[in-house]
Amino acid sequence: MNVLDIRNVTKTFGDFAAVDNMSLSVREGEIFGFLGANGAGKSTTIHMVSSLLKATKGDIEILGKNIAKFPRFAKANIGIVPQDLAIYEQLTAYENVRFFAGLYGLRGSLLQERTEEALEFVGLGDKAKSFPKSFSGGMKRRLNIACAIAHRPKLIIMDEPTVGIDPHSRNYILQSVRKLNEMGCTIIYTSHYMEEVEEICTRIAIVDHGKIIAEGTKEQLKAIVTDTKEIWIGVRSEEGVGIEALRSIPGIVSARIDDGMIKLQSKAEINNLNEIIQQLIRSRADIRSVEEQAPNLESVFLTLTGRNLRD
Amino acid sequence: MRNDWLWLVRKNLTLILRDRKSGLLHLILPIAGVLLSLLLYGNTNSGTLHIGIANNDGDVSIAADAADYLSRLEKVEVTMLDEAKLKEKIASREIDSGVVFPAGFSEKLKHGEAPAADIVSIRGAQVTAYVGAMLNEYLGNTAAIAQTSASNPELFDRLYEDFAHSGYQVSSKTLRDSSGKKDVTYQAIGFLILFMLTSSYSLTEFMSKERENRTFLRMMSSPVSSRIYVLANVTVNAIVLAVQIVLTLIFMEVVLGIDAGVPFGELTAILFLFALAAIGLSLLIVSFSSSNAASAALSNLVITPTCLLSGCFFPTDIMPDAVRRISSFLPQRWLLDSLDKLQGGERLSDLPLNLAILVAFAAAFALIAAYRLSRKDNTGQFV
Ligand SMILES: Nc1ncnc2c1ncn2[C@@H]1O[C@H](COP(=O)(O)OP(=O)(O)O)[C@@H](O)[C@H]1O
Ligand SMILES: [Mg+2]
Q1: Do A281 and A184 share a domain, yes or no?
Q2: Pick from B379, B380, B381, B338: which is nearest to B185 by CA?
Q3: Does residue A42 line the site of ligand 1, with CB under 6 A?
């Protein structure tokens, strides 16, 4: 059974198509990764799925029912974790979760139970009576999640839930995504961090310019990358490395330097390691390590678009 | 549906009760307005009535005699001024009332016409009526002489001479028994109108705030409809304004013992009708604004100036005719007009036109706002 079906959906703002004839299905029990650079159209897609935006063209179905025809049914079965915090600063953590869960018709002792459960779930059980202003960024994000799950939706959509938070909260969130999935929730996880998508998602769609350019398990996606290889070279100092000179070496597709690590992408069939090393020696770089990386989603993205995900 | 509505109403009330600034805005300010009105008018209760007279009809005229007559009344002090100065002094509250005799006033009177002297008061209907009555007492006699002498000017002059120098009885009625308190009420309501509009706007604008902090987005992704959402906001708005009205009136009448000159229930009822118009206006402002900043700017542009125009701070009597005509298009004018009439002894049931107009304002504003808001939704402005 498909939890979500998006069929030929387009959303235009003026004459700009933020989502361009997109089709996509999410099956029950998946953790579906929605990977794309900033501005790719991820949030716009999510807003259409949650009925916050009307699609310009196309159909969307939740659990087999068209959301335009059955908006209440669709909304009742979704929990959305917005990209930006959506909580009341003047309400306690408990009151926030209780209020939003109440919008789904829960009342009384059941509401209380679910509220406590959701707070417990995101690790804020002992902070129920505190106001969000005393929370760290990560705690606020966790509260943001609790507000979306207390009514136990079938489909939880998380829009970049880990942007700008500490590693501890980030791990906590990734873990809870897995736990929610084990409890039977289908999850759509949106991110522009390929590492976390790679880590937790069972299936991934890569979006670019409002279109899905690749879709599949991570193994399937990585199989796309047969023609490029990734070489990482650790150097002691980034100074005078001469990235431009490296780029002009035959076969090099891209080169960048990231925290003392030169990351090169090169055509697989050309053996240019010698020239690379020679160039680095000429520029007096102090080489500490050289390793060839297995293909990752980053290289998939690069292969497909010719750009880096972070750019 | 009803369940959703109550849930949202409850949340909004909680948020308002938690916000200390809102208590100040909704409740303390109107009470401060009452105190300020008391300061402005409360202590002039037993004093002298200062009347300014601008006589454009010449020094030797019936108008000049009428001015002289007024100056001899007990507890009345007359200053002769030109018209511009007169309006200035009324605006600065140095005089309570002004009378303007137009040129040709005496001539018309002699020919049996009934020329109108312009009476303007800072203190509302009560004072105007008093000055008018005193003036009529004098001019009424003169008019009677004119009637008798038909179109015989010599006969008129002789009769009038006799009358003017007959040492007429000067009325010694005590002046303005309760009018001071009515003035305080009138001014306090003037301020209350401003604060009601401000409160109502701030409560409506709460919806823009919820758009900004994204909680609106979350609510709209739940099964709650946007109509219920707006309805809940309006409900809370009406509740707060009702509390504001009742508390202000109780403070004025019970705590300070100021008699409004209007039954409590009728005053509350008409103010609540105005509250509905205020809510409609706020919805209109918010629905016509693309952002928080725009709606704040628009509200500044609308609320205070219309209050000024409609006479919340100064009586419209001192304003040019064109401005006075504009003010008939403002709900505030119709509330103040009702108040004037109620203080003049009429009952709410005597004022169906005023009531209907206030309701019409509320309905028209709300309908336009609903249309605007629904169009916004259709173009997907939720996010
Ligand atoms: N309301 C809007 N009006 C105009 N353009 C918009 C609107 N919302 C989003 N966009 C544009 O659509 C594109 C996709 O945005 P978004 O879906 O937020 O991207 P993502 O979430 O993948 O970062 C961006 O270029 C953005 O500027
Ligand atoms: Mg986004």
Answers
A1: no
A2: B338
A3: yes
Residue B100 to residue B120: CA distance in whole angstroms: 8
Nearest to A103 among B4, B15, B214 (CB): B4
B14–A91 CB contact, under 8 Å: yes
Convert the pLDDT of each residue in B261-274 to its tens digit.
889 999 999 999 99
Domains contained in chain A, number: 2
User: What's the predicted TM-score (pTM) here?
Assistant: 0.77
Gap from CA of A165 to ligand 2 centroid (Å): 16
CB of A40 closer than 6 angstroms to any ligand 1 atom: yes
- Residue A302 counted as domain residue: no
**What is the CATH T-level fold of the domain B49-164, as seen in this structure?**
abc type-2 transporter like fold (3.40.1710)
Are residues A69 and A94 both part of a single domain?
A: yes
Q: Are residues A240 and A140 in the same domain?
A: no
A to B CB pairs, distance under 8 Å: 69
**Of the partner residues A50, A87, A89, the one whose CB lies closest to the CB of residue B221:** A50
Distance CA B35, CA B245 (A): 15
Chain B residue closest in CA terms to A102: B7
State which residue of chain B sits closest to A52, comparing Cα positions.
B382
In angstroms, the CA B95 to CA A162 distance is 69
Q: Same domain for A191 and A275?
A: no
Mean pLDDT of each 10-residue bin along chain B, 383 residues long: 91 93 88 86 63 84 81 79 84 81 81 75 67 76 75 77 59 43 84 95 91 90 92 96 96 87 92 96 90 89 92 80 86 93 89 94 92 65 50
- Considering the domain boundaries, does residue A134 fall inside one? yes
Atom index in ligand 1 nearest the CA of residue A53 equals 1
Interchain contact, B215 vs A86, CB within 8 Å = yes
Domain span at residue A211 reads 2-223
Tell me the chain A residues in contact with residue B219 when contact means C-beta distances shorter than 8 Å.
100, 103
Q: Domain residues of chain B, as ranges? A: 2-41+179-375, 49-164
Residue A236: pLDDT band (50, 70, 90) is confident
Same domain assignment for residues A117 and A237: no
Same domain, yes or no, for A32 and A87?
yes
User: Measured in whole angstroms, how far is the alpha carbon of residue A277 from the centre of its chain?
Assistant: 36
8 Å CB contact between B263 and B345: no
Nearest to B25 by CA among B269, B208, B200: B200
Closest ligand (CA of A49): 1
Instruction: Give the residue, out of A44, A80, A188, with the most ligand 1 atoms within 8 A of its beta carbon, to mutate for a pocket test.
Output: A44
Q: How far is the CA of B8 from the centre of ligand 2 (A)?
A: 28
Closest residue by Cα to residue B361 from B277, B272, B273: B277
Q: What ipTM score was computed for the predicted complex, to two decimals?
A: 0.83
Do A86 and B4 make contact, defined as CB atoms within 8 angstroms?
no
Checking B312-321 for CB contacts under 8 A at 24+ apart, the result is: B312/B190, B312/B191, B312/B193, B312/B194, B312/B336, B313/B190, B314/B91, B314/B122, B315/B120, B315/B121, B315/B122, B315/B123, B315/B124, B317/B90, B317/B120, B317/B121, B317/B128, B318/B87, B318/B90, B318/B91, B318/B120, B318/B122
- A92 with A232, same domain: the answer is no
Question: Are A113 and A9 in a shared domain?
Answer: yes
Q: Examine residue A301 and state whether it is found in any structural domain, yes or no.
A: no
pLDDT digits (tens, 9 = 90+) for B341-354: 998 888 999 999 99
Q: How far is CA A242 from CA A109, A262, A286, in A?
A: 66, 11, 13
